[in-house]
């Protein structure tokens, strides 16, 4: 899947497969994707409407929130556990994967608790939970902690024990992302190590949940172009085939998802890909043929409603959108002091940056008469660039194109604008190889290029995003609206190999300070 579906996990229920992924600080969170063949996927909803605690996610927390969820089907219910590095391990469940999910329940409070995965052992009736650690919050990492858990998944029954200490394993570092299984009389933990860009996938097995565990590397880059390869989940089809989904770090594109064949060797260990190396081409799973499908991107915003592919950069509030009788997204120009930095704006509606050359377009009409009100389309990351319309003091609207480098707290002009007759413009971003973005606009006389090429950048652990926004300076009373219509993402005519060599930096902007106290190698 050629977009940022970070830290995927997968489960089968009957003939259906479901996948979820990290959603970090965006809302709604915990995307739910559906497939019948593990190849063609559609986005069918989200399991988490709002992030908790509410006060923590009233403003953007781009790299925080929902980290590395685990999706399971047990006792007629779907379960998702995840770790929030600043608050602890959460759990939700539902009878229907597309239905109403329970209110998030905090299973274990604490900082640095991440990558949680449950297991209900059908052989013994016991329930367990394993999780990793974020050193930036807890001071420790490279280890996995195990707990006994209540059968209803609401509480842990002991203080926990380190069941794998990778500091004692020569060459292992940044062990994380555990997925817990029972197979052939063994407890299995499939977990990556070595960092997202250069690491490998490991397997651990023990006759007892609390160990001791023996380990093996089961998937690594080798001579392929699939760097990482990192964190994912094992699933068995109804016909008995085994498969493994994992991600590959792709810079501004985020973490794209690969499907690998899995078989069990004569010695009982799993063998992934081509004898432990990732494959790019392989026979599809032996399942009924399905029509080609990918998660939706285009949107006409019928009745003012946006599709499932969109997420806010913080918990939404009333007034951010207005439903109406026609097509088109009507965004309220929310008043804010942060109009000069989109990274801090909570009411930016986003979707994932496609990991292939494409053209992104949308029609914009700025209805707000508030001087300083503005609206547009952005490529949003640690650095960002946007193009759109701004209301001037004299009441006219003008085409503007602005950008903000990494760590800058103010935007800069990317190109001189021109008046926008009728307060309208068609906006375009052409995304080429290496996530290099060319901006242009049409105010009625054809498309005009604007500014220099912008190299999209990821957040610290999240791929770049496409965003739509409307904002106005602080003041009193409603600030008016902006309308977006006919949003389209069209693949470019020539699409290169979708998996390039290990990613180089996508921007000339220097990397962040390596002494930054946040989690360094995991994300």
UniProtKB/TrEMBL annotation:
Top-rank taxon, per record: Bacteria
CDD domains: GH43_FsAxh1-like
Cross-referenced InterPro entries: ConA-like_dom_sf, GH43_C2, Glyco_hydro_43, Glyco_hydro_beta-prop_sf, Glycosyl_Hydrlase_43
Keyword Chloroplast: no
Bias-annotated ranges (Low complexity): 481-496
GO molecular function terms listed in the Swiss-Prot or TrEMBL record: hydrolase activity
Skewed-composition ranges (Pro residues): 497-514
Pfam families found in the cross-reference section: GH43_C2 (PF17851), Glyco_hydro_43 (PF04616)
Positions of region (Disordered): 481-523
Residue ranges of every copy of the Beta-xylosidase C-terminal Concanavalin A-like domain listed in the record: 299-489
Keywords: Glycosidase, Hydrolase
Family note: Belongs to the glycosyl hydrolase 43 family.
Stated name of the protein: Glycoside hydrolase 43 family protein
Organism: Streptomyces lateritius
Upper lineage: Bacteria, Bacillati, Actinomycetota, Actinomycetes, Kitasatosporales
């Amino acid at each position: 899947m050629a977009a940022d579906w970070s830290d995927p996990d997968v489960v089968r229920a009957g003939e259906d497969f479901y996948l979820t992924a990290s959603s970090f600080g965006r809302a709604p969170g915990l995307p739910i994707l559906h497939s019948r063949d593990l190849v063609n996927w559609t986005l069918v909803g989200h399991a988490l409407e709002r992030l908790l605690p509410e006060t923590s996610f009233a403003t953007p927390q781009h790299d925080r929130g929902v980290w590395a969820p685990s999706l399971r089907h047990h006792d007629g219910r779907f379960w998702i556990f995840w770790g929030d590095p600043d608050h602890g391990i959460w759990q939700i469940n539902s009878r229907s994967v597309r239905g109403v999910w329970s209110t998030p329940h905090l299973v274990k409070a604490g900082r640095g608790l991440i990558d949680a995965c449950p297991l209900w052992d059908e052989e013994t009736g016991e329930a367990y939970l394993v999780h990793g650690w974020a050193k930036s919050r807890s001071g420790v990492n490279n280890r996995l902690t195990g707990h006994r858990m209540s059968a209803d998944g609401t509480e842990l029954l002991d203080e926990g024990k380190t069941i794998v200490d990778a500091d004692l394993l020569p060459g292992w570092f940044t062990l994380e992302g555990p997925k817990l299984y029972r197979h052939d009389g063994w407890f299995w933990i499939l977990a990556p190590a070595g960092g997202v860009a250069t690491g490998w996938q490991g397997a651990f097995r023990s006759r007892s949940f609390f160990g001791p565990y023996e380990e093996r590397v089961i998937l690594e880059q080798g001579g392929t172009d699939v760097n990482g390869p990192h964190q994912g989940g094992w699933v068995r089809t109804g016909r008995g085939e085994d498969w493994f989904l994992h991600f590959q770090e792709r810079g501004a594109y985020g973490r794209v998802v690969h499907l690998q064949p899995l078989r069990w060797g004569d010695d009982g260990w799993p063998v992934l890909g081509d004898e432990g190396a990732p494959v790019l081409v392989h026979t599809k799973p032996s399942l009924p043929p399905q029509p080609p499908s990918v998660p939706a991107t285009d949107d006409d915003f019928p009745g003012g409603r946006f599709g499932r592919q969109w997420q806010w950069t913080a918990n939404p509030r009333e007034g951010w959108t207005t439903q109406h009788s026609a097509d088109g997204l009507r965004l309220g120009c929310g008043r804010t002091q942060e109009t000069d930095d989109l990274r801090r704006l909570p009411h930016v509606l986003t979707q994932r940056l496609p990991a292939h050359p494409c053209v992104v377009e949308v029609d914009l009409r700025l209805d707000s008469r508030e001087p300083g009100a503005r609206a547009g389309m952005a490529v949003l990351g640690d650095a960002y660039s946007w193009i759109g319309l701004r209301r001037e003091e004299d009441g006219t609207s003008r085409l503007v194109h602005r950008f903000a480098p990494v760590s800058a707290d103010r935007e800069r002009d990317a190109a001189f604008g021109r008046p926008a007759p009728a307060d309208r413009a068609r906006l375009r971003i052409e995304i080429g190889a290496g996530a290099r973005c060319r901006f242009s606009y049409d105010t009625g006389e054809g498309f005009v290029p604007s500014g220099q090429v912008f190299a999209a950048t990821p957040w610290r652990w999240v791929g770049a995003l496409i965003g739509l926004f409307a904002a106005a300076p602080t003041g009193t009373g409603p600030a008016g609206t902006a309308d977006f219509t006919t949003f389209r993402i069209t693949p470019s005519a020539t699409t290169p190999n979708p998996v390039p060599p290990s990613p180089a930096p996508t921007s000339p902007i220097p990397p962040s300070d390596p002494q930054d106290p946040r989690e360094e190698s995991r994300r």
